[in-house]
Write a structure and sequence with these properties.
It is built from eight helices and twelve strands. By secondary structure, it is an alpha+beta fold. Strand 8 and strand 9 form a beta hairpin.
Length: 248
């Protein structure tokens, strides 16, 4: 389980009109410098440089969206870091979503911040619509997905409008049907997801982080543990053009 922080870095602004005093301006400068001059924070915090979105326009301002993540179990450490680095004084409200927005609400009161809790699935759909509208190269699909040799990713070159299905793989999995008016409903799901994968990996291999689990998985051979078409049919399944090596 990861906690995630989104930071908007406004570009080309000699003075931020929202900053009312020299001390506030200096504090803001220090916060930006601390967050953006490094990509790792403490033992487990990471800023995903490859995920940042540049030239984004939000409320008439242009800048870059940065994404920082850390294990939710490290939230007490994050709160302590926020206090020690003075990252909270110039903020009054933080929008938060997911289970952590409720679980750590009282703990964050010590930062003198107001938590504005947002519905997790509503923010998910809104975020997808924002990405599809503003960053078409962030969306892609796989061609020939059942053929390991020819399968490849392709960027979406045309506009994507509802209706469509969203499969959200997090700690668990939710499958959402998004209608033409952007309303949605949960049509299916399962409790088996990233949390199950991470937990099993920790128990079976002794790893501690999700990244370590992914690295170990990249070194393994899935055909030694996955059930393949060849295990069931003894070879290729021609009626559906499935190779023996296809994961069943």
């Amino acid at each position: 389980l990861d906690g995630k922080i989104t930071i908007f870095q406004q570009m080309n602004h000699p003075t931020d009109e929202r900053v009312n005093s020299v001390p506030e301006a200096e504090t803001t400068r220090k916060i930006r410098h601390y967050l953006l001059s490094k990509t790792a924070y403490g033992d487990s915090g990471v800023r995903d440089v490859n995920l940042q979105l540049e030239d984004q326009k939000i409320n008439g301002r242009t800048g870059t969206l940065h994404f920082i993540r850390f294990p939710t179990s490290s939230m007490p450490g994050f709160i302590a870091l926020t206090k020690s680095k003075g990252l909270a004084p110039n903020s009054s409200t933080v929008c938060a979503t997911g289970g952590g927005a409720h679980k750590y609400d009282s703990a964050c009161q010590s930062l003198s911040l107001k938590f504005k809790k947002m519905d997790e699935l509503h923010t998910l759909i809104s975020g997808i619509q924002y990405i599809l509208k503003q960053n078409s190269l962030e969306a892609f699909y796989y061609t020939d997905p059942l053929n390991n040799e020819t399968c490849k990713s392709e960027f979406l070159t045309s506009r994507v409008d509802p209706p469509y299905l969203v499969v959200n793989v997090g700690s668990g999995v939710s499958i959402l049907a998004v209608a033409e008016d952007h309303s949605f409903r949960r049509v299916s799901g399962t409790s088996l997801g990233g949390g199950t994968f991470h937990g099993l990996c920790c128990l079976l291999t002794g790893c501690e982080t999700f990244e370590q689990a992914l690295e170990l998985a990249s070194l393994g051979e899935n055909n030694k543990v996955d059930k393949l078409v060849g295990d069931i049919y003894g070879g290729d399944y021609a009626p559906f053009n499935l190779k023996a090596s296809t994961f069943w």
